Amino acid sequence: PFDIIEFKAILGRILHARLMRKTATLLHQAVGIATIIGNSPPMIRVKEAIRMAAQVEAAVLITGETGTGKELVARAIHESRPDQNGVFVKVDCGTLSSNLMESELFGYDKGAFTDARSDKKGLVEVASGGTLFLDEIGNLPIELQPKLLRLIEESTFRRVGGLKDIQVKIRILAATNAEIEEQIDRGRFREDLYYRLNVLPI
Question: How far apart are CA 61 and CA 53, in angstroms?
């Protein structure tokens, strides 16, 4: 036996909570995509792709000429995620040398090199639980590409000079204005990394 009035009240609270969660998710997605201006058929397809990308964990490769809004698309994907509670970390792969890029991305352990007086987290660790946006991925030095590939495949990496693997939960978005296929042909970009990044192309 149970009290039907109390049962209805409990059911009402459950349905209300579900409705509030769904409304919050829809509003959150609307805010992220609202930064993308335009209603032409191609832009509508881009917005649909953003909505789809926000629902899954797969890597996304955003391609387009300079100034077309690749970072806006990346931020919209991050902000449209239903469980979005992590940070958005941008890395410009075209501005740092190979040595600096490795320690910037993956961090380093104390004693890894002369000036490494203490452990330092890299941007990959900072982004854990959120999104890592690799802008101009075509400029990533070839010697760092295996390390990024391992991060995508195993969700683990090792700091510069480190001896232990570090586990992270991270969403990877990448962008480029370069023809990656041409760079693959020239031996400047790993084909296996390209296919790991290009799961959802926009």
Answer: 10
Cα–Cα distance measured from residue 98 to residue 96, given in angstroms and rounded to the nearest whole number? 7
User: What's the rounded Cα separation, in Å, for the pair 42 and 60?
Assistant: 18
Name which residue leads in pLDDT, 192 or 25. Answer: 192
Q: Is 118 exposed, middle or buried (0-12, 13-18, 19+ CB in 10 A)?
A: exposed
Give per-residue pLDDT as tens, 34-56. Answer: 777 788 898 889 989 998 998 88
Is the pTM here over 0.85, yes or no?
Answer: no
C-alpha to C-alpha distances, 21 to 5, 100, 192, nearest whole angstrom: 25, 43, 39
Q: Token digits for 37?
A: 């201006």
Rounded Cα–Cα distance for residues 108 and 191 (Å): 28
Contact 189, 145 (CB under 8 A): yes
The answer to whether residues 109 and 164 touch, using CB atoms and an 8 Å cutoff, is no
Mean pLDDT over residues 10-15, rounded?
89
- What is the spatial distance between Cα 81 and Cα 29, in angstroms, rounded to a whole number? 7
Q: Amino acid identity of 202?
A: I
